[in-house]
Amino acid sequence: MNNNQLIFGLKKGDSEAYSQMFDAYHNMLCAYAYELTNDRDLAKDIVQNVFVNIWRIRLKLKDDFAVKSYLYRSVYNEFLNQNRNRMYVVPLDKKYIDSLNSFVEQEDEKSLERLIKLVKGEIENLPPKCKQTFLLSRQDGLSNKEIAEYLNVSVKSVEAHITKAFNRIRESVGSKMEGILFLLFGMNRKSYSAN
User: Fold this and answer.
1) Domain range 109-188, CATH architecture
2) Can you tell me the mean pLDDT for 112-128?
3) CATH number of 3-90: 1.10.1740.10, 1.20.1090.10, 3.40.630.30, 3.20.20.70?
4) Which stretches does DSSP call E strand in the chain?
5) Exposed (0-12), middle (13-18) or buried (19+): which is 160, by Cβ within 10 Å?
6) Ordered alpha helix ranges (H), the chain
7) What is the pLDDT, as a whole number, of residue 107?
8) What is the pTM of this model?
9) What's the DSSP call for residue 140?
10) Mean pLDDT in residue range 55-83
């Protein structure tokens, strides 16, 4: 079922169209929501709310409505709403959200899973000090100075390890590096450059 058929089916109230949309996007959206929240239950709640909402507004859908883009944007917006409700707002950089939205629109689920697995594999295969430095930076959100103090090394050494890690990942996935790293470490909002 293509995008137009899906919209037509949803507007008619066709539960089969809704089921197909759910089957096609549910797992990817849960993975995306989990990367934003780091909480599986909250991620599932967010995705459920998005699917309920699209059913609720189905009669207002336009014929040229892009389902995939809408679903990802809705997950992100619901994530922000949930955080506002908890009085905890994460100031995610718009540049990276736009980049991520653009990225996920271009990838199908299998391609996305393959790229994530590839990047995780590259990170796992980094030399031990390089891997530790990279994860302290991207996963734990430490600054280069904080990492240098923690590992008792120079800031230049930290920068060299991070640059090496970026170069290895970039060799594997090229221009898709920023999107994948944002999916994996999105909550850090760090600039995905070697600097």
Assistant:
1) Orthogonal Bundle (1.10)
2) 85
3) 1.10.1740.10
4) none
5) middle
6) 3-11, 15-37, 40-56, 67-85, 94-106, 109-124, 128-138, 144-151, 155-173, 177-185
7) 61
8) 0.49
9) S
10) 80
